[in-house]
Amino acid sequence: MNHDPEVYSDPMSFRPERFMDPNPEMDPPEACFGFCRRICPGRVLADASVFISCAMVLAVFNISKDPEDSFIVTDPSTGIISHPSVFKCSISLHLDRAVALIQADERR
């Protein structure tokens, strides 16, 4: 549904600005969670879970592109579950006390 050329102009390209134009294209969650009586009952839980997971990772780590790479190529895979291709990135701790937090979680 999210690759329909009648809904999205150039649907296979990564263009987040398409949702910020004065006439934005349809927001993907409006289509991917279904419609009317067939809408996914877990959509609110799914959105909240992804948000909380991202917030927890970003609270502890700095994630940036690898200094050796000039740009990141994000050619998505195809199939039932798509994901970006493998790329190098730099992950470092945001705070020194985050080490204690991570080690405490590993001991459980």
List the helices and strands and how they pair.
Blueprint: H1 28-32, H2 43-60, E1 61-65, E2 89-93, H3 97-106
Antiparallel strand pairs: 1-2
Characterization of this structure:
The protein has helices spanning 28-32, 43-60, 97-106; strands at residues 61-65, 89-93. By secondary structure, it is α+β, with helices and mostly antiparallel strands. It has a domain at 61-106. It has a two-stranded antiparallel ribbon with strand order 1-2. The longest helix is centred in the middle third of the chain and has 18 residues, at 43-60. The N and C termini lie far apart (42 Å).
C-alpha geometry:
extended
Strand content: 5-15%
Spatial strand order of the main sheet: 1-2
Give the SSE string.
HHEEH
Average pLDDT number = 80
The number of E-state strands comes to 2
Which residues sit in consecutive blocks of at least 5 with pLDDT less than 50? none
DSSP helix fraction:
25-40%
- Describe the biggest sheet? 2 strands, antiparallel
Helix- and strand-based class? alpha+beta
Protein name: Cytochrome P450
Keywords: Heme, Iron, Metal-binding, Monooxygenase, Oxidoreductase
Pfam family, one: p450
GO molecular function, one term: oxidoreductase activity, acting on paired donors, with incorporation or reduction of molecular oxygen
